[in-house]
Design a protein that fits this description.
The complex is a heterotrimer of chains A (about 170), B (about 575) and C (about 270). With about 170 residues, chain A is an all-alpha fold. Chain A contains five helices and no strands. In chain A, helix 2 runs antiparallel to helix 3 and helix 4 runs antiparallel to helix 5. The chains are: A mainly alpha (about 170), B alpha/beta (about 575), C alpha/beta (about 270).
Chain lengths: ~170, ~575, ~270
């Protein structure tokens, strides 16, 4: 990650906004695909996670009121990995996945995001930026706890979700 | 009203085809009408070849099967042409000294003839002038006999040879002149054909060229081309001219690419076509179905040749009928037209261009090698009213409304959005779809769209352009034909009338959807219907009969199908023979 | 100016959850946003296969053609309508098997369009047959139970040999990087080829490992010999823009005078 991210508050905010928005958009996409593939419980779960994520995105946006954020192309962000840390990767879902599996990934992405904000907080030399990043990190740790709680609350163990139907060829 | 048919044959570079072309052009320049066809052996160059030119005072659109005069520059492999240059006892033969050994099959027969064979030294004459072109000496000789050895001949030589340079042209003029002079010492014992008086200066054109003209004049501005005999020259004619109109021709890597390119252009709102022959048409079937299903305008010209498979590439036949009318998978209605003459190549392709855009579908035009590659002297063609025009969507749709690309309408034609228009975005699809262009496997969508795509073509059966009817008041026999057999059938009609047997002739131009009502109406009052077509399996005959209900069949005059394949062209005599052989009603 | 998500048509994709093509769709919308692409000016042209379903998911114009023929469709459209942004796309079977001939000629012909091949080394739509890029010993198809036993094509090397002036490879695990490649591909004058390693979760679940195997290489040479050496030494998992050597796109206008079409027929 470039050092600019640790020193430039507006750049950091631009990253945060995109991070939260992409997370929410991705969850909505995944909710859609699970609906198309008739996994009702997971569709509902992802919808809930998406709506939650959207609220987080609004919170971050609130921090940007009246400030002119830099406009970045999708590939100009400095993420630790290929995609923004809070986005589920497309490859992490499966039509037969269980709630437990989904929440494990949710936990992972929240922890990644926590790590991202903590890292900025630790490295920055700008006090106001440190304050901001620490605040976001605290928020994220709440999200982590919330997901951990959901995981624990899960009552049913994952069943052997083998699909007895073979794949179908629609065209 | 005297017509005459002159055949000329040669090989190994004797330039017989050039001879035929120059002769026709010279004759046209002095008031003759005529038609020319060429025939070749399999070699690319230096092979045996022949040209047949028919001349007369009025426009000639067919050949008559008789050869009055045969000019031989070289006898090699002449037997290859035995079918298409049938010699009779009265054929006058003039042979060059260098013509070589006469075909053994003919030799004895020729010797037995009263008038024998006239041998003249065209090669010697040419060589004396320092030229190897005995064909040009022969050209001068025949032109003098026809009375066109003055300016018309010079003009014809200039037109053909100007690219070779002034020296070659000057030499040719000399050689032609000495050939012409020969006529005085060695007259041709045959009366030349009658000359005509043209109202305006005529045109000289091939069917493929006229097809190209029809396409460009009606608005084709994208052509995808893959070479195939005998369609390549239609594509080449357009290649040289389309850019000056702001259009473009692309040579594709194969027929599959060519037809899909044309569909891409059509989707973009640019009237598009491709041209091919049987084997290429077969390759194109999948994509033609895509044009039908996605409702994309597409014109495909099929210049038919001998089939099946590689068949007889340089000969004419009407055997792609089944492929054109039946050959798409699924229920895929489309428009199929057939060109009724060389001039009609212009008309039918222009009409096809308009129809493709108007109905947003595939329009196939069936021409053939005879029409495509014969050259004719004909009266200048009138300008046609056909223009490619799309039924456009009014975009963007009003607020709150969606645009339905495949909207089910009374006419069956949905307004078409074009890329670039905001509010009309849709994805065209070969998959069955709903009105809103979303892929659909539902029964009601399938039935709706199938019915719509068929319905949008149905009104065509009432077109006045469905066919041409040449009716004689006393006629009780009707000869039914389609496509290129129309001119020769008209000639048969003329001869039959002279013999006291008036017949009516119907040439069908619109093959699909079939204009059944119009056809049945034309048959009213007839005792007999003779159907003639140039394929082995009576393809149109079966198609027509499959449309008849029991009642219609019962009410029809007796139907006789005479179908025989290429490579021989139909002759008027052959058709007359069929008429005379019909069982008496 | 539209945001990336506004380029989505709202039609929900039928791709399996876990499919790499979602990422490519994402990248295309991001590239369109970066290009400020008016949706009505773009046309996505596809063949047949899972990835060929993509045009319906974007709110531009589209043409879902027949198997293997996206490139000629796109070529005809672009030549007739040079004002449009035309992107051809499809899978490895569609593009390199039945569409192979068109691929070669598209690289050579250099019409100004982009070709994106979502390569999952399998025929997904028809239930998992080997494709021209399937590894030699992949034995999971009933059609080739012993494996193809034939070496796979190297699409980027093929593209170079056939004359493509822009060659890139992306990975569905990196939609942002892919968006950048697509942005550059659209801007490139002439034919631009982008191969995307886009996993098939249903028939090739092992492809999830690609994430560990891909490695970024910023080669981007304009020297064909250098590119050839790179592409022939490449393990198939390098990602980046490898070759960028623009040349004048085809077709260019010719000088042509207005013609009287009927002139040549008069004697």
């Amino acid at each position: 990650m470039t050092t600019a991210l640790y020193e430039d508050e507006l750049l950091f905010l631009a990253h945060s906004v995109t991070l939260e928005q992409e997370a929410a958009e991705r969850l909505y996409e995944l909710a859609d695909t699970l609906e198309v593939h008739n996994n009702r419980p997971l569709h509902t779960l992802f919808l809930e996670l998406a709506q939650l994520s959207e609220r987080h995105a609004s919170d971050v946006l609130a921090h940007c009121q009246g400030r002119q954020l830099p406009a970045l192309q999708a590939w100009e962000y400095s993420w630790p990995d290929a995609e923004s840390p809070e986005s589920f990767q497309y490859s992490q879902v499966h039509y037969l996945m269980s709630a437990e599996q989904a929440l494990q990934v949710a936990l992972e992405v929240e922890q990644n995001t926590l790590g991202f904000y903590s890292d900025v907080a630790r490295r920055t030399t700008q006090p106001s930026l440190r304050q901001l990043a620490e605040g976001f990190a605290r928020e994220e740790s709440e999200h982590v706890k919330a997901v951990q709680a959901r995981l624990q609350a899960l009552q049913c163990p994952a069943l052997n979700n083998l699909d007895l139907d073979p794949p179908h060829s629609p065209e | 009203m005297r017509n005459l048919t002159i055949a000329m044959t040669g090989s190994g570079g004797t330039g017989v085809v050039a001879l035929g072309e120059m002769l026709l052009r010279a004759a046209a320049g002095s008031g003759y009408y005529g038609i020319l066809r060429k025939t070749f052996g399999p070699q690319i160059r230096g092979g045996e070849s022949a040209a047949v030119v028919r001349l007369g005072p009025r426009p000639l659109a067919s050949f008559c099967g008789e050869i009055d005069l045969l000019l031989v520059l070289d006898w090699s492999h002449f037997q290859r042409f035995a079918d298409e240059i049938p010699l009779s006892a009265s054929t006058l033969i003039i042979e060059d000294t260098a013509a070589g050994v006469r075909p053994p099959q003919l030799a004895s027969e020729l010797l037995a003839r009263e008038q024998g064979v006239q041998v003249l030294d065209f090669s010697g004459l040419a060589q004396a002038q320092g030229s190897a072109h005995s064909n040009i000496a022969l050209l001068g000789y025949v032109a003098a006999w026809l009375g066109c050895d003055g300016e018309p001949l010079q003009s014809a030589i200039d037109h053909r040879l100007h690219k070779q340079g002034a020296e070659v042209v000057a030499l040719a003029h000399n050689v032609a002149r000495v050939g012409a002079d020969l006529l005085q010492q060695a007259p041709i014992n045959l009366q030349p054909p009658d000359v005509g008086t043209a109202a305006e200066a005529p045109w000289l054109a091939s069917g493929n060229q006229l097809a190209g003209l029809g396409a460009l004049e009606a608005g084709i501005r994208f052509v995808a081309a893959y070479p195939i005999t005998p369609a390549s020259d239609a594509l080449e004619w357009m290649a040289g001219r389309i850019e000056s109109l702001g259009g473009r021709l692309v040579q594709a890597e194969d027929e599959l690419a060519a037809v899909n390119m044309a569909i891409g252009a059509g989707f973009g709102g640019v009237p598009a076509m491709t041209a091919t022959s049987g084997p290429g048409l077969a390759l194109m079937s999948e994509a033609m179905g895509l044009a039908v299903a996605s409702e994309t305008p597409l014109v495909v010209l099929d210049v038919m040749r001998g089939g099946p498979s590689t068949g007889i590439p340089t000969k004419s036949e009407q055997s792609d009928f089944n492929l054109a009318v039946y050959g798409l998978h699924g229920d895929a209605p489309r428009v199929v037209l057939a060109s009724l003459s060389l001039a009609d190549c212009h008309f039918s392709v222009a009409w096809a261009t308009q129809l493709a855009s108007e109905r947003q579908t595939l329009v196939l035009v069936l021409s053939d090698q005879f029409l495509g590659q014969s050259m004719q002297v004909l009266p200048p063609l009138p300008a046609l009213p056909f223009q490619a025009e799309l039924s456009r969507a009014s975009l963007p749709p009003p607020a709150g409304a969606d645009y339905f690309r495949y909207l089910d309408t009374d006419s069956g034609i949905s307004p078409m959005a074009l890329p670039g228009q905001p509010g009309g975005e849709y994805t065209a699809d070969g998959l069955e779809h709903s009105q809103s262009a979303v892929p659909s496997a539902r029964a009601q969508d399938h039935e709706q769209q199938l019915a719509k795509r068929q319905r949008k073509l149905q009104s065509l059966v009432a077109s006045v352009q469905w066919g041409e009817v040449s009716a004689l008041p006393q006629a009780r026999i009707l000869i039914l034909c389609w496509g290129s057999l129309f001119p020769v059938t008209l000639e048969a009609q003329q001869r039959l009338q002279e013999r006291g047997t008036p017949v009516t002739v119907v040439g069908v131009r619109l093959l699909a959807p079939l204009p059944l009502e119009s056809l049945l109406r034309s048959m009213q009052g007839m005792a007999q219907v003779l159907l003639v077509e140039q394929n082995h399996q009576a393809q149109f005959g079966h198609y027509l009969q499959s449309h008849l209900t029991q009642a219609q069949r019962a009410g029809l005059p007796e139907l006789t199908c005479y179908s025989r394949p290429g490579p021989r062209l139909f002759t008027p005599q052959e058709i007359m023979q069929q008429v005379e052989g019909l069982p008496r009603a | 100016m539209l945001k990336a998500k506004q380029y989505k048509s709202g039609v929900k994709p039928i791709w399996c959850p876990g499919c790499g093509h979602y990422s490519v769709l994402n990248a295309i919308t991001k590239a369109f946003a970066a290009l400020e692409q008016p949706p009505e000016q773009a046309v996505l042209v596809s063949g047949i296969g899972c990835s060929s379903r993509l045009p319906a998911y974007v709110n531009s114009y589209g043409f879902h053609g027949v198997h293997g023929r996206a490139l000629p469709l796109a070529t005809g459209l672009k030549v007739a309508r040079p004002d449009l942004n035309v992107i051809a796309l499809g899978g490895d079977g569609d593009g390199f098997s039945i569409g192979g001939n068109h691929f070669l000629h598209a690289c050579r012909r250099n019409v100004d369009l982009v070709y994106v091949v979502m390569d999952n080394e399998v025929y997904g739509m028809t239930k998992g047959q080997a494709s021209p890029t399937t590894p030699e010993h992949w034995q999971h198809s009933k059609l080739t139970p012993h494996g193809p036993e034939v070496r796979p094509f190297q699409p980027c090397a093929l593209a170079l040999a056939a004359g493509a002036g822009f060659i890139a490879r992306g990975h569905s695990g990196d939609p942002n990087g892919l968006a950048q490649m697509l942005f550059a591909a659209v801007k490139h004058p002439g034919f631009a080829f982008v191969q995307v390693l886009s996993q098939c979760v249903t028939f090739c679940p092992e492809q999830v490992q690609w994430k560990e195997q891909v490695h970024a290489e910023s080669v981007c040479t304009d020297n064909p010999a250098e590119a050839a050496h790179f592409l022939h030494s490449d393990d198939g998992f390098a990602k980046g823009i490898f070759y960028c050597n623009p040349r004048t796109p085809w077709p260019q206008p010719h000088d042509s005078q207005a013609t009287d079409l009927r002139e040549g027929f008069r004697l």
